[in-house]
Amino acid sequence: MRKFKTESKKLLDLMINSIYTNREIFLRELISNASDAVDKLYFKSLTDSSVQLDKDELEIRVAFDKDARTITVSDSGIGMTADEMEKNLGTIAHSGSEEFKDANDLASTDAADIIGKFGVGFYSAFMVAKEVRVVSRAYGSDDANVWESDGIEGYTIQPGERAQHGTDVILTLKDNTDDDDFDKYLSEYELRDLIHKYSNYVRYPIKMEVTKTREKPRPDDVPEDDEDYKPEYESYTEEETINSMIPIWKRRKSEVTDEEYNEFYKSTFHDFEDPLRTISVHAEGALEYDALLFIPGRQPYDLFSRDYEKGLALYSSNVLIMDKCADLLPDYYNFVKGIVDSSDLSLNISRETLQRNSQLRAIANKVEKKITSELEKMRDNARDDYESFFDNFGRSIKFGIYTSYGSKADELGGLLMFYSLKEQKYVTLDEYVEGMPEEQKDIYFAAGDSLDRLSKLPAVKTIRAKGFDVLMCTQDVDEFCMQAMRQWKEKDLKNVTSSDIDLASDDEKKVAEEATKDNEDLFKDMKEILGDNVTKVEVSATLKGAPAELTTTGPVSLEMERILSQNPSGQEVKSQRVLELNAEHPVFAKLKDAKEADDKTKLRLYTDLLYNQALLVAGMPIEDPNTFAEEICKLM
Ligand code: ADP
Hints:
The structure is a single chain. The protein is of the alpha+beta class. The protein is 37% helix and 21% strand. α11 crosses α16. The longest helix has 24 residues, at 358-381. It is elongated, with a radius of gyration of 36 Å. The structure holds adenosine-5'-diphosphate.
């Protein structure tokens, strides 16, 4: 018996006692080793004329034996000599080994972490097997050898038999325990499933015997037209290639039909609708990768739930590393589905190390740029599609701008669309700016839940009367997004109810200021009645029609206050409200009368009513609806 090297032993210890939830990856690891071994032989045949290969012989086989409780992964690859077995299987794999400077590093780290960090290839077999036998015959050699181990102390290597070059890895599964069912791997269905899941696009056929049923031939004495005849069935086994081999993402877009893409999308990402767009990328040069991305045609029901996981499937040379690599997609493109395959990435890369992987970051960058340019193209050339896209996923983009505190505004702002009151359709910010009359300085938007209500806001009417357009922000994230952007093409984005909107002429301003001054005492009383609800009461320079409106100073608008108050965290964010009055409205005269008559009850009543009315118009709840109702009754 030869002993394992210290670091290998520590790792094996971890494997054997692993509670790693992802044990099923053992099959992926073994198949990927098998595929590498076939690759090596294949490449040898390309450069070495003495190697004559029949390409049909290049294959991988998976088999199981229920009674013996074994799973066998075989390949017709390059095989190993006894020395190579000693070197390759006796010590922990090279990829990881350099990093284990100190074997003690291992003991202090948890198994999942190590498996993730270094990947352990062959040794992962010991997560499910109590004994592993490797029978191998190197290409060009007449001898075969058997490596055998229980993964604890050491291993043996002895001469053995194998008809052809290649390797069999035979796992004897661990005994079942109350917690762990290893027998589940002894099933055609399970193995097939694992092969599909992890190794579907391995370049060589992965073959397995599968059980099928067929109708037994009709006995000779039963006439063709005998209606009472019940056919009998029998089961038989047949070898089948389980994997699909050629990854669709490696193929040029021109070679694949839309239907093939759509079917692949639907079956892989469990959607029942075709994708809106399919993006196929083949990057060559310093950074080589293939990517196949899909923009779904509809919003997944859980997109905005906590459980939704964004990410792209990550493959390295056709072998799945991770089915949802979140680092490949920014949050604002969380709706994109797809696959990235890069042979430059090591197979054994964990979530932790991925983030630090510069290769992957570079790919993520490119993928992001590609998505952006595809969306821009759709926006410019297929407006209907884009609008449907935006209805489904515009929210993610707005969130992206908001959560990046506006740092993504330049990149993403061009993708935004809002409903234009003037055009009565979606417009982009650029289109809005293009349509601005020369005298218009800012971009105006109104925020609230209903288009109809917003279009009737006094402030909106004032702006429309000037001939300026107003963008309707009816999604809760809209205003937060606008605020994070602050500007678009050097034009300020302004909420129509912000008190710093400066649309009045000098004359109008002067008149309003004077009226405010003349009514100083009245406004002081009103402010007192309203308390902290408003910061001041004044005459509006622009308000027409309505008797009063609420505007806000500072960063929080009424709409933002309303949305934030619904936030379960319960944090209270108050807007700074200004009650603006229309001095020309008959109601204003009534207020003045009440003040002059020193009728405090009436003044309080009128002030309350005006304030609450303005709240309602602004789409805000009123604090005390009962009193408000009573007050109205009193007047009636
Ligand atoms: P890795 O695949 O990351 O190099 P493994 O622990 O999975 O590490 O395998 C160690 C080595 O054993 C491989 O590099 C390869 O040389 C050899 N090996 C494993 N499986 C096979 C196989 N089926 N055929 C030939 N060589 C193999």
